[in-house]
Amino acid sequence: MTDTASNKAGAPDRPTKSGLEPPTKSGLEPPTKSGLVRRLYDWVLHWADTPYGLQALAILALAESSFFPIPPDPLLIALCLGATGRALRFAAVTTIASVVGGLLGYAIGAVVWGSVSGFFFEYVPGVTPEAFASVQGLYDRWDFWAVFMAGLTLIPYKVFTISAGVFAINFPVFVVASVLSRGLRFFLVAGLIYLYGEPIRSFVDRYFNLLTWVFLLIFVLGFVLISVVL
Fold this sequence. Notes:
The protein is an all-alpha fold and 230 residues long. 73% of the residues lie in helices and 3% in strands. The protein is built from 10 helices and 2 strands; from the N terminus they run αββααααααααα.
């Protein structure tokens, strides 16, 4: 393969021990720091640089709404940066899968919660008896807005989807709040990348380590808010 052919994507190849390594889909260079930031980055780009990135995004978004602790945002961002023209499609897939996952969480709470609550309380971060008791109080006062804020922010959404089923929250209200909040969250991220792709790509490339730590801090604070404040 000629240099011209190997660089048809417009990004320079990176040197490796065996020669040249083609650029990743996301266009981001690996972070220089090791540890948690590097592992998260590698995990994200592993899926973004495979033919199964979109499927992985859908599965992650679905699982995060009902039982999985890692949100889909990092993978969504990586895929959008790698193919800005498809950013809105990625957001749509993430939204649909996340809402379906929310319905699964609602079903878990409504149908089988009595037999699986011990597993969730012991193994799923943010899902505690105290959190459920507090969420019930929020539902009594705010119902729609409680679901909406959980879906929009990094508060663990699964706590609200499962508890909505446990406490038999009005199902149409739950669905509408989930669609609006999840859609707003994911389309906002993808829309910014779609509109300002190259500047945002350069910004993320330059400050990736810092942005990842900020994201992780916000993520952890979401669990703290569930377990301490509520």
